[in-house]
Amino acid sequence: MATPGAGRRESRPPGATAAVALPGAATLLGLMNYTAPIATLSDTGAGLHAGTTARIWVMSSISLGLAAALLAVGALADDHGRRRLFALGGALLALSSVGCALAPASAAFVAGRIVQGVATAALLATGLGIIGHTFTGAARARAAGIWGAMLGLGIALGPIAAAWLTRLGDWRLWYWVTVAASVALTAASRALPESRAEHRRGLDLPGLVTMVGGISALLSAVTLGRTGWTRPPVLALLAAAVVLLAAFVVVQARRTSPMLDLGLFRRPAFLLSVGGALITGLGVIGLMSNLVTVMVGAMRLSPLAAAFVLAIWSGMSYVVALQARRLPARWSSGLLLGAGLALSAVSELAMLGISPGTPWWRLAPGLLVAGVGSGLANTMLARLAVDSVPPERASMGSGANNTARYTGAALGVAMVFAITTNGGATPDAMTHGFDIALLVSAVLCAVGAVVTVPLTRRLSAHATISTVLPTPGR
């Protein structure tokens, strides 16, 4: 006789606990490390004797490694084993963090941060790929929600932990903590289930070279462009980026086993995944990455206090992402992604009007609404990243999603920085510029929310047709 409720229990696949806990821990660590310099830039720059341009690279260099490597490591993980690439990512993060901790000057530190970005790319792409392969249905939605929640929690804790460790001793302490955490993560990776695609596609070397080269040239141009967009090196890098990225598209269209299947862009879910991630990077991460600088430079908060204020946004994002699984199943991922972007737009409008005398709590309502929007968006993007591609290509789907997110973030950081500092570095000029940046970011998020509507309708229509049409052979 069956026990009551037995039919409602979901069977847990082997290694299910590790397949949620370790990708979540890796994402938490990766995002904490990604955001750590936001609150310690002044101390880090002084310790490395970094000038204005070098400080820009201190902030941006990890985005270069992340965006350039995400799609490539996702494809490699699908072919050669997601657990294997996850462990390699953890080991590489430990080694590169040693380099950052011991860096004698800004050039060595920036090189270490770029390698940290590559290592973080391996952890993010393989982690979400492991979740996509291990779980299905409602269990996958819950696991993706936890993964999405770790994005918010990492952004909340990173600046706080780094600022606190800097007050405790030195800005380098954070990187030694990252070394220890990365070593522990690598050792624990043995508990993960191994998974890979049934058929290897092989190394797409032309695609790899053109994609990495194109994204690297683009983000390098964006970083250098903050000190002058018409300078010859910037224009040369932008031209190289256009040529290389166009070549990447041509290479992918002609290969029988491409790194990125361009046919996926005909899927509404994939367009939502990649497009939503790009808008999130441009309109949300770019803005919030500059907010601490405005709070410290114009509102006269300490770095640690500014980090706690920023945590209103990222902490709420964490809470909402964890609870998103309780939303009605009839509410589609596309609908909730659009709602998240719309709330982000509203929140940015709510923060308009700050000035050098504005108290920190004036930002709190907008940051709370922004946290709700980001929590919804992060969770839905994680679901779409694995649901929009075939199961054997889960890491590639994650790589494409996160490539769009962190390319958008790098562009967004540059855009907001340029707008905020366009009128000068005085507190009045900075807050006026940030008001303009808030408006621009709100428009981007609103446009993103509107675009999700037709894509969500197409996604719903596609799902209905798939349900109604008979399965071949029946």
TrEMBL record:
The chain crosses the membrane at residues 16-36, 56-78, 85-108, 114-132, 144-167, 173-193, 205-222, 234-251, 271-292, 304-322, 334-354, 366-386, 406-424, 436-456. PROSITE patterns: MFS. Coiled coil: none annotated. InterPro entries: MFS, MFS_dom, MFS_trans_sf. One of its GO terms (molecular function) is transmembrane transporter activity. It is found in: Cell membrane. The keyword S-adenosyl-L-methionine does not apply. The keyword Membrane applies. It is a multi-pass membrane protein. Keywords: Membrane, Transmembrane, Transmembrane helix. GO terms for cellular component: plasma membrane. Residues 1-460 form the Major facilitator superfamily (MFS) profile domain. This is MFS transporter.
